[in-house]
Amino acid sequence: MARQTNRRSSYRTQEPVEVIPIALRLVVIISCAVAIVATVYGAWGASAPVDAISGIPLPHPTPTTSIDNRTPPEEPPPTPSPHPALATPHPTISPIPPSDDAPRIGIVAGHWGHDTGAMCPDGLREVDINLEVAKQVVDRLQTLGYQADLLAEYDPRLEGYQADALVSIHADSCQDFPNATPPASGFKVASVEDSMVPDVEDLLVACLAQCYAARTDMYFHTNSITYDMIYYHNFYEIDNQTPGAIIEIGFMKNDRAILTERTDLVAQGIVEGIVCFIESSRP
Fold first, then answer.
1. What is the pLDDT averaged over residues 180-208?
2. How far is Cα 232 from Cα 108, in angstroms, rounded to an integer?
3. Are 253 and 176 a contacting pair, CB within 8 Å?
4. What whole-number distance in Å separates Cα of residue 238 and Cα of residue 77?
5. Is residue 108 part of a domain?
6. Which of 1, 12, 63, 174 would bridge with 120, disulfide CB 3.0–4.6 Å?
7. Predicted confidence (pLDDT) per residue in 214-266, tens digit
């Protein structure tokens, strides 16, 4: 498959960015910068992360809590490699001037409006997890002053969609995969294989992976990135200058607790990854 040949044009509105959203964006990017340091250098320590929207401390899940009951692998699990733009020095932390336009972000709730996605024997549906997380991500981005669109799997607005980023949210299978190495737990992020903006999409993937890992304490399950992820149909519908990524937020069986009980952590990790990308992309 080949990506569309239409070129991206600026997609902005003339809404000024308010002071409060600017301050909230700074809190988010600072939080993610600290999280990236923790991911790369193991410096998070015992302190609990703080919700960048509400300021309320969030419990940091560990393998021994009810949030994450997976069995740790015998070998250290793979972790995403730091993107050059996220290594020291850290991405520039600066407010968006009030005269600038708010970034536009598209958030796809995987399978929404089309089918159920994966299902567990007790009826837990992937589409319900995806939609709940996507709604929270959109709400938090809007609170930060971003323009955020909640999109269905085959939303007609995706044709030629122009934005600063598009992120499609999915959950992984409810199967055991007993022989998987590492075990069927963790998340993964990917962009289109034949990208027209590879460097930009590499940065988007790196920000999402590192911020999500630091916020949720989940590991990057690189061994299970599939053909369907790197050739995901949304990537071929949007404008080819719109950076896109797909994130599988966890496995519905082994990561069920965090996917159903702590969607706030899941959504916040995605939001911080997006803010990291937007702020790191600015000149």
1. 93
2. 12
3. yes
4. 33
5. yes
6. 174
7. 999 999 988 889 999 999 999 999 999 999 999 999 999 999 999 999 999 99
Residue 102, both tokens? 């708010």
DSSP one-letter code for 186 = S
Residue 7 lies in a domain: no
CATH of residue 43's domain is 3.40.630.40
pLDDT grade, residue 282 (50/70/90)? confident
| pLDDT classification of 47: cutoffs 50, 70, 90 | very low
In a domain, 249, yes or no: yes
pTM (predicted TM-score): 0.73
DSSP strand pairing (147-151 vs 165-172):
unpaired
What does the pLDDT read at residue 208? 98
- Map residue 96 onto helix, strand or coil: coil
pLDDT of the residue at 223 = 81
State the Cα–Cα distance between residues 120 and 273, nearest whole angstrom: 28
* Residue from 79, 26, 85 nearest 214 by CA: 79
Q: Write the CA distances from 82 to 79, 166, 233, 254, integer angstroms.
A: 9, 21, 27, 26
d(CA 40, CA 214): 10
Tokens, residue 275:
């803010």
Range of the domain at 242: 19-281
Q: What are phi and psi of 8, to 5 degrees?
A: -80, 135
Domains in the chain, number: 1
d(CA 251, CA 143): 29
Residue 244: strand, helix, or coil: strand
Q: Tell me the residue ranges of DSSP E strands in 111-156.
A: 147-151
Residue 9 lies in a domain: no
Tokens of 279: 């702020």
C-alpha–C-alpha distance, residues 109 and 158, integer Å? 12
